[in-house]
Design a protein that fits this description.
225 residues; Rossmann fold; 2 domains; 6-stranded parallel β-sheet; 11 strands; binds ligand BV8
Length: 225
Amino acid sequence: MTRIVVLTGAGVSAESGVPTFRDADGLWEGHRVEDVATPEAFAHQPAVVHRFYDARRAALAGVDPNPAHRALARLEQALRDDLLVVTQNIDDLHERGGSTRVVHMHGRLRAARCVSCDARVEWHGDLGHEPPCPVCRASALRPDVVWFGEMPYDLDLIFEALDDADLFVSIGTSGAVYPAAGFVRHAAAGGARTLELNLDPSAGTHHFDEARHGAASSLVPEWVS
Ligand code: BV8
């Protein structure tokens, strides 16, 4: 059976109405994402960083999975453990589209982490009012997301899957952020074929055996069928 690793980025959720990072001007309230999504920003201006994530968490209630998410869930039903979806996205649209084998390498909007006891808890509301940690009661909850300069989650599991992969498919990512942007080279070195499905050629498009350009909501169902 073909073992497939799919990497997704903000482009897979764009047609659900979740803004991407770098398409428009990559700014939020005038801040560059790279300047807000950092431990330093959280240390110096926690209210601004909380507002950034609270707004995105609240917006999740108003968006739905699109045909690209649902096509990947259908592929998982056919391939089961031979498919792994690794997402850079922190939304829950893969899961709401029916995928169950999803690795959130940059964390999840609907989770919080306690910097005091390191508990990770599901969290659907705001964090800006600094609620107490449900485990240790300290008011030390942060968004459970991976900021620039922080170690992405589950890299061992991801690189193991890339080593075993026969096919690596990158969907809706600009290839601007590492280590995710290096996965195509890792997969190719392990003998996998590589395919890019993206609106525009990504920064790493020349590393792919094949690239198809267009909207994920049409490219992905077409590829899966
Ligand atoms: C790490 C957080 C060490 C949550 C994000 C100096 C100091 C420290 C580190 C570095 C440094 N210099 C470089 C680095 C590495 C750094 C990095 O890569 N920086 C970049 C800016 C150069 N990386 C890190 O810091 C990472 N950690 O390196 O630790 C290490 C190294 C190796 C091994 C182990 C440890 C941590 C990176 C994680 C940062 N957190 N998010 C949040 O707020 O969301 S990154 C952020 O960018 C999001 O997660 C996002 O997913 C990610 C990538 O963006 P994309 O998903 O690609 O989105 P983008 O808007 O860019 O592109 C959208 C694409 O979709 C476009 O191509 C567009 O054409 C396409 N598209 C649009 N619409 C559609 C579409 N495609 C199809 N259909 C459509 N309809």
